[in-house]
Write a structure and sequence with these properties.
By secondary structure, this protein is mainly alpha-helical. The protein is built from seven helices and no strands. It has one domain. It is globular. The relative contact order is 0.19.
Length: 168
């Protein structure tokens, strides 16, 4: 994963809105998840939750997918998912003790394209996603050693490329 900042960074054009706001909110939420400060995390989740959930979900989902694919290139077993969710819930306890392991499992499945609510799965509330997705990304970043900025940049580039591919 290569790195740039939320404004676009070296060699890249600045991000347009709403991508710039989403990148800043995601950065704030993941950073707060790693901080151990529950008040900072609550404030960052509020900021994240105020943005369009489709945009924030796409970015956080892309980040989680990239990190999961990097950590598990051959795919994940049920034991891998259980271990990840347990690590994530333990790491989240200081900032968000109400972290729901079932929600974390659904976010992992959604990031991997397994859980699609339009296909009959259980849709996640936008506020629940805003509270849990940064915890998952923070845990995955801790496991991977990748920098947050690099992961965010890679996810945004991936989404931009996918958007171009969808445009006739």
């Amino acid at each position: 994963m290569h790195t740039t900042d939320a404004a676009g960074g070296p060699g890249r054009r600045p991000l347009p809105e709403p991508a710039r706001s989403v990148a800043a909110a995601v950065t704030g939420a993941v950073t707060a998840a790693r901080s151990g400060d529950p008040e900072a995390y609550a404030a960052s989740v509020t900021r994240l939750g105020a943005l369009d959930p489709e945009h924030t979900g796409l970015v956080l989902g892309a980040m989680a997918r990239l990190l999961l694919e990097d950590a598990h290139p051959g795919g994940m077993t049920a034991d891998d998912v259980r271990a990840l969710v347990a690590r994530c819930a333990r790491a989240a306890a200081p900032v968000y003790p109400r972290a729901d392991p079932d929600v974390l499992v659904m976010l992992v499945a959604a990031a991997l394209g397994v859980h699609q609510h339009q296909d009959g799965g259980i849709p996640l509330d936008a506020q629940v996603t805003a509270a849990h997705a940064p915890l998952l990304v923070a845990a995955l970043l801790a496991d991977s050693g990748h920098p947050l900025a690099g992961c965010l940049d890679a996810a945004l580039a991936d989404l931009e490329l996918a958007g171009r591919a969808d445009t006739p």
